[in-house]
Write a structure and sequence with these properties.
- By secondary structure, the chain is α/β, with parallel strands linked by helices.
- It folds into two domains: 48 residues; 253 residues, 2-enoyl-CoA Hydratase, Chain A, domain 1 (Alpha-Beta Complex).
- Strands 1, 2, 3, 4, 5, 6, 7 and 8 form an eight-stranded mixed beta sheet that branches.
- Strand 9 and strand 10 form a beta hairpin.
- The radius of gyration is 22 Å and the shape is globular.
Length: 326
């Protein structure tokens, strides 16, 4: 992937320092000047600023990184980790949804089924993929492919990256909530190992519709939430500008989700985000997938289902007869 010049608001001090560094190097070459001390000082300041910024990111800043336009998408990871990906199309009921794709591939020489939410890079692709927001036919296609995987004994990898399922009129007319609900039930009953990974945004039921898996992984700068920060802010504070406050309240970041038991592992990213070194990010993801898949393959189908049931049965807390239970 090409290097990006896109700069987030909180990264602007780094951009300014980078500009100064390039100017000094240019002056040194053009005028044959020894500016080694000045260049070394700027490089040291860049390193210190990077540590300061990226070691204390707020929840909202991590959401911004998760949405970075150059962040690797599902197909980028599939291309870096797998071979022989063969996309399969259609839900056999209505049509093909390009926001939610799927197909077979080889991972470590073994066949697997890939289910992935895919965003677009340029305007044309974003429109074609509906900005990564699947419609009912996408979830029905995903279920068809997961059932196919179960028939042939293939593990299922699902890549989550969506702001949410598409809320438009056509989507509602074709029963998007029913399609997601059916996936939740059927994924809980699949007799093959299943692993999902949040590679970018994990928004609401649109993410959960392919996320009821034996293991849930998440990248360090991804988020997983019942609603987007903007949507939460609009409801609670009647102001989308309160999104940073909402992001803090939602506890949607990877480290918090791991402590709560919502995700099983946080995958480290290259400094500043996965877009800075997609190959390194893919290598970290591949290692995590290998580890968890080996663990799951050691379980019989009945033990796999029991463990999956226990995982989701013990998420969260509820109150019954005055007592709080977890």
């Amino acid at each position: 992937m090409e290097a990006t010049t896109y700069t987030l608001e909180f990264e602007k001090p780094l951009r300014d320092l980078g500009t100064q560094l390039e100017q000094l190097r240019k002056q040194s070459l053009e005028n044959n000047l020894d500016l080694g001390k000045e260049i070394a000082a700027i490089e040291k300041k860049i390193a210190a600023t990077q540590r300061e910024i990226y070691s204390s990111l707020t929840p909202w800043q991590r959401v911004q990184i998760a949405r970075h336009p150059k962040r690797p998408y599902a197909l980028d990871y599939v291309g870096l980790m797998c071979t022989g990906f063969q996309e399969l199309h259609g839900d056999r009921q209505f049509g093909d949804d390009r926001a939610l794709i799927g197909g077979t591939a080889f991972f470590d020489g073994q066949p697997v089924m890939i289910i992935a939410q895919q965003k677009g890079r340029d305007t044309k692709e974003k429109i074609a993929r509906n900005f990564g927001m699947p419609q009912p036919e996408g979830y029905r296609k995903a279920l068809r492919l997961m059932k196919l995987a179960e028939k042939f004994g293939l593990p299922v990898f699902s890549f989550i990256d969506t702001p949410g399922a598409y809320p438009g009129l056509g989507s509602e007319e074709r029963h998007v909530s029913e399609a997601i609900a059916l996936n939740l039930r059927e994924m809980a009953l699949l007799g093959v190992p299943t692993i999902s990974v949040v590679v970018g945004e994990g928004g609401s039921g649109g993410a959960l519709g392919i996320g009821v898996t034996d293991r849930v992984l998440i990248f360090d700068n991804s988020y997983y939430s019942v609603i987007s920060p903007e949507g939460c802010a609009a409801i609670l504070w009647k102001d989308p500008a309160a999104a940073p406050k909402a992001a803090e309240a939602l506890k949607l970041n990877a480290d918090v989700l791991e402590k709560l038991g919502v995700v099983d592992e946080v995958i480290p990213e290259p400094f500043g985000g996965a877009h800075n070194d997609p190959e390194q990010a893919a290598a970290a993801l591949k290692y995590a997938l290998q580890k968890h898949l080996n663990d799951l393959r050691a379980l019989s189908p009945s033990k796999l289902l029991d463990a999956r049931y226990e995982r989701y049965r013990h998420l969260g807390t509820y109150q019954e007869g005055g007592a709080v239970r977890s």
